[in-house]
């Protein structure tokens, strides 16, 4: 193989780090030019949901690139655009049937926020403009999506000049931001995490609030925290009460990651907009978007002559869309949802077992193959010193041993909490999961 020379023209996220150079991938493994193999235990960033090197997807992309690599959706459509939109609409809950494409999840959330604004304006309520998001949630890195999210570290550099979006706390029963006990909430059916949404809407004035954006399962910030059972039903009721659109950010959870096509299905409610990304093309091409409720589309038709004042050059890019189509065909053919449920349970049980051996594992949680492990210094859950960066260290050790995880440290009641997301490809096999857990255990023992 030709020798690969590094140069210093790549503008990395961290200019002081040197990363392994990946030459190819096969299944759940990535291979670097220096002969190392990495088990992709987090599917990149919960994106490479079918693993690597699938020829069928590459060929579908090449075929489309050979026919028409790019057309602008302002002027043209393509057969693959129709095919993929129809497939996604069939997977989405009724009546969310219109599909809008973007390149990435941040753009998808920007689009949803803008559509919500236009919807209310067209309906004669131009003052309904405030977006409410959640602390400890992530919706992307563009100014709008960053403002909607609550990633303290990413927001810090741009504060105070982010957009004036408002926030409530994400639910986290293990470390309740309202210092309540789950059993008390259950008993009284009085949830501070939902009541705080209503309170904030009333403070801002319902006439000013346009949308509430939320991840169904809190991913990168908290490490796969599942909300209490009735959370979303109450959130839906509050949004309906005040004519606030509910945007479910399924960029990380969509297309089977949690064992259902969309994670919001676990909670039996219908959002107004679902945004998606990552899993739709399993990382083979930049592709994301939103699926929109018919009442918003009806509003757009009646009040705006069907015009959404928005769009990107690469919306509905034919090669990305062809990748998405090939990926969804594989999900269906390989009965991926069944595998997620089986493999997810297998992995979850193994991680619970690991918790009995590793004293600094505080919690194991999640759904399907979106699992999270949280660490603490003692059994009472005292977080480690942030400077220890335990999850980063565990991941560094794992990379030395041949696997990569998704470390994170979001803010928990003002303190940093360390977690790892474990999210292997959705078609992973049990022997690969055994290897994953073995490397994880060894890395944890070496890291502390
Ligand atoms: N929303 C969620 C829930 C995400 O996890 C992410 C990315 O991690 C995004 C939005 C942003 O997506 P992208 O990085 O494709 O812009």
From TrEMBL:
Superkingdom of source: Bacteria
Keyword vocabulary terms for this entry: Aminotransferase, Pyridoxal phosphate, Transferase
GO molecular function: pyridoxal phosphate binding; transaminase activity
Family: Belongs to the class-III pyridoxal-phosphate-dependent aminotransferase family.
Protein's recorded name: Aspartate aminotransferase family protein
């Amino acid at each position: 193989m030709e020798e690969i020379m590094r140069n210093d023209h790549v503008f990395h996220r961290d200019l002081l780090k040197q990363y392994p150079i990946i030459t190819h991938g096969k299944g759940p493994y990535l291979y670097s030019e220096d002969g190392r193999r990495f088990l992709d235990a987090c599917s990149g960033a919960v994106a490479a949901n079918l693993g690597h090197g699938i020829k069928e997807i590459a060929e579908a992309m090449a075929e489309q690139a050979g026919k028409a690599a790019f057309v602008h959706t302002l002027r043209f459509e393509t057969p693959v655009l129709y095919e993929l939109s129809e497939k996604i609409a069939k997977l989405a809950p009724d009546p969310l049937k219109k599909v809008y494409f973007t390149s990435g999840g941040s753009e998808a959330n920007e689009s949803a926020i803008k559509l919500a604004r236009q919807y209310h304006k067209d309906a004669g309520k131009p003052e309904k403009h405030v977006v409410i998001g959640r602390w400890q949630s992530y919706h992307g890195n563009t100014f709008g999506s960053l403002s909607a999210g609550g990633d303290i570290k990413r927001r810090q550099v741009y504060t105070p000049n982010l957009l004036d979006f408002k926030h409530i706390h994400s639910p986290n029963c293990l470390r309740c931001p309202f210092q309540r006990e789950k059993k008390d909430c259950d008993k009284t059916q009085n949830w501070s995490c939902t009541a705080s949404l209503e309170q904030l809407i009333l403070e801002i004035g319902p006439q000013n609030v346009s949308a509430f954006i939320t991840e169904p399962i809190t991913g990168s910030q908290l490490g796969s925290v599942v909300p209490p059972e009735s959370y979303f039903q109450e959130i839906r009721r509050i949004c309906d009460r005040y004519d606030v659109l509910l945007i479910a950010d399924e960029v990380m959870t969509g297309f089977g990651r949690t064992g259902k096509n969309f994670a919001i299905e676990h909670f039996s409610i219908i959002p107004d907009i679902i945004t998606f990304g990552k899993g739709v093309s399993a990382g083979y091409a930049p592709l994301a978007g939103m699926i929109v409720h018919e009442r918003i589309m009806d509003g757009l038709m009646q009040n705006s002559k069907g015009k959404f004042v928005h769009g990107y050059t690469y919306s509905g890019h034919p090669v990305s869309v062809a990748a998405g189509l090939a990926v969804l065909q594989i999900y269906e053919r390989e009965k991926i949802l069944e595998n997620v449920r089986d493999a997810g349970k297998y992995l979850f049980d193994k991680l619970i077992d690991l918790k009995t051996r590793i004293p600094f594992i505080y919690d194991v949680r999640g759904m399907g193959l979106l699992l999270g492990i949280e660490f603490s210094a003692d059994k009472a859950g005292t977080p480690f010193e942030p400077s220890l960066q335990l999850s980063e260290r565990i991941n560094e050790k794992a990379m030395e041993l041949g696997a990569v995880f998704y470390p994170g440290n979001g803010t928990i009641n003002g303190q940093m909490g360390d977690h790892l997301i474990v999210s292997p490809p959705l078609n992973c096999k049990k022997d690969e999961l055994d290897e994953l857990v073995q490397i994880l255990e060894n890395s944890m023992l070496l890291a502390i």
